[in-house]
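Hi V.,

You were right to ask for the full record rather than a summary. Here it is.
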Amino acid sequence: MMRVLKVVLIFLCLALLLPASGVWAGNGKEIAKVEVCADVVRQFVKIPDNAAPPILLRNAQAIAIVPGIIKAGFIAGGRYGWGVVMARQDDGSWSKPVFVTLAGGSFGFQAGVQSIDAIMVFKSRQSVERLSRGKFTLGADAAAAAGPVGRSMSAGTDITLGAEVYTYSRSRGLFAGVSLAGSGLQIDYEATDKFYGLSGLTAGEVFAGSRISDVPPVADHLIQILTQHTQ
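Predicted structure:
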């Protein structure tokens, strides 16, 4: 009898522990992607002479991080990537991440396959609102340009830059400004729902922090890293 009771108690304990220990087990791919995004940001700010001017980061209204963009093609080519975007809150803090995909095509003499990491710095709140609706095209819905580099650029010069979105790419370990005009950035609703364990989330809800109570710790880690380098 005592042995039976002991077995029952063990099963009860396991039943109580499993939901807690496996709460993020269903979104492992999304968690891994956010971890990679955090590493891309860390690498981005390590390069003093080939990174965004500090004032551009401080004034950013949103930042998209898309690691491992695959560029491939022969004559006609294309690119595809999957990452996250985070928006600036009214109090200056950063929102929780929303998943996005980036896709675009190109035409011209080209060959081979290349993987790059990209960071997009959004200067205007209007661009963030357009993206929140689901999708927009760089260069069409928002003026896009290659991001300026160099920490020595003056505040006055940076402020007068006219584009709404500036993009940086990392290839072979170094970041440089690059234009992704023509690429479409689209909210990945399925991945966002899976990451937070909810259904029907909108980008606006995630940016505002509504409906979300449980957040994978890796999201807070990414917010911490971004806050450290954009204040």
